[in-house]
Request: fold
Amino acid sequence: MTIVVPTRDEEGLIGEIVDQVRPYGDEVLVVDGHSRDRTREIAESHGARVILDRGRGKGDALRLSLEQAVGDIVVFIDADGSHEPRDIPLLLAPIVTGEADMVIASRGKGGSDELHGTAGQLLRYLGSQLIMLAINYRWGVRLTDSQNGFRAIRRDVGLQLGLRSNLTTIEQEMLMRALKQGFRVSEVASHEYERRWGKSKVVVWKLWWAYIWSFIRNIF
Reply:
């Protein structure tokens, strides 16, 4: 099993994150977005395998990680401390037992410190809920979180999906394409904490059109 940590200028926490997730996987793969700080050096010193992405964005970095991972199951987790590494076994269990092909850590079930409090966070929350509602009715499922980056997927399934997004819309696209192709998707409750390092790279007013376009492109 491979644990993938996409990074870009995350020197403040990357060492701690690698240490926290390493007990749960056979390898920790850091896919770095050409950081200008010591992210790569620190990750390697803590035992991670580090590769550079192709400079196209988070979506392409996740596609590259699926190509490069050695494990049969891939877990994605962010480097900012917002996810709970202790929940990794919960993500893995339905896949290991053959009950699911992809498992998403649900903020809808586990709560989030990042989706409430500001106008931008409210807009992000409402938009994601409308998209989630449409996805549920389109494919007859009852999921609660389409966009959380903390998730696990069978590597062979991830490679079959034909993912194309280069942006943070990759998580939404991954879910929609998995459902469209008949793969089994489930959720586990996991709390999202306020990021402990750096600033969010998701700027809602700059990316709202990308989420809508990704939704339209994959819903039919």
Remarks:
- The chain has one domain: 2-219.
